[in-house]
Amino acid sequence: xxxxxxxxxxxxxxxxxxxxxxxxxxxxxxxxxxxxxxxxxxxxxxxxxxxxxxxxxxxxxxxxxxxxxxxxxxxxxxxxxxxxxxxxxxxxxxxxxxxxxxxxxxxxxxxxxxxxxxxxxxxxxxxxxxxxxxxxxxxxxxxxxxxxxxxxxxxxxxxxxxxxxxxxxxxxxxxxxxxxxxxxxxxxxxxxxxxxxxxxxxxxxxxxxxx
Length: 211
Known about the structure:
This protein is α/β, with parallel strands linked by helices. It contains nine helices and eight strands.
């Protein structure tokens, strides 16, 4: 399955937890997809190269079943290996143009821009298809992350035409504030995958009023 570079990044953007058991990872992700996740990013900071390849391949098959784009965190080479729909780049990763050269024109490239609209503007000029800001709230995954504001999100919405992804401590309770400020997608790890009922947690988030 292929999503063009203008594929809409919108709705619940689920990011996988660090899970070493591939079967358990697939179980959790399937529940999130059943709950309405519209984008999946594979992120596993604890896995070695072989496990990452195994898990990414398995998630490629699962996301194809649900017609949901698969984005690989940080690793354009892995994204190409598993025919993922794109890659998400952080500040320490390769640049947008290098990733585009690796993946081709038809893939999605997203960039973390933290709390800086200037980084987002530069990323878009280089060809990024969406940008992400955060952390908007305290995050258990990245407790030391810089904080972004609603004003920053509103400014980015005025300045940029690409989809905006908000991340960091997001829940069904605080998500509406981000959507009202201009976010197109809400990126979530813990609020979905640490929930007792993953499918229900995903449903609560996916049912928010995305523009």
